[in-house]
Write a structure and sequence with these properties.
Blueprint lengths: L1 H4 L4 E4 L1 E2 L16 E4 L4 E4 L14 E8 L12 E6 L14 E4 L2 E3 L2 E3 L2 E3 L5 H6 L3
Antiparallel strand pairs: 1-3, 2-9, 4-5, 4-10, 5-6, 6-7, 8-9
Length: about 130
């Protein structure tokens, strides 16, 4: 699906704070690697701000990917500018009220952007969404 978008794709590899004895970090709340590109359909994978609609399962799309100076893929972006469909919080950019910067978070052993490609969700997760 990303190939059909005909855009550059960035890989974001999680920063694993502590590793397990076998060398792998098993933290299912945040992906170990995510693929990001502009106009890609995404879903939030954790509750960030429930009152504003930034909840686990919220759908949207990537508008831009911003890295700190000197960083590049596969580093974790400083933030990903997204357009979240049900966002009701204050406007980050008055011209585009649905734009929201999503920053990396830490859960368990892992630090990563809490996003997932919509094409990568399971049928069980999809059944539970209100679309």
């Amino acid at each position: 699906m990303l190939r059909k978008l005909n855009r550059l794709v960035a890989i974001s590899e999680a920063a694993n704070v502590r590793s397990r004895p076998n060398g792998e970090s098993k933290d299912e709340q945040l992906e170990n690697k995510i693929l990001l590109c502009k106009v890609q359909q995404i879903m939030l994978t954790t509750n960030i701000w429930t009152k504003a609609g930034l909840v686990n399962g919220a759908l949207g799309e990537v508008v831009d990917i911003v890295y700190e100076y000197g960083s590049k893929p596969p580093d974790i972006p400083a933030y990903v500018i997204t357009r979240i469909n049900n966002y009701t919080g204050p406007s980050w950019n008055p011209t585009y009220p649905k734009l929201v910067p999503i920053t990396p978070i830490s859960l368990g052993n892992r630090r990563q952007i809490p996003l997932k490609m919509v094409w990568a969700i399971t049928v069980h997760k999809y059944q539970g969404l209100t679309l």
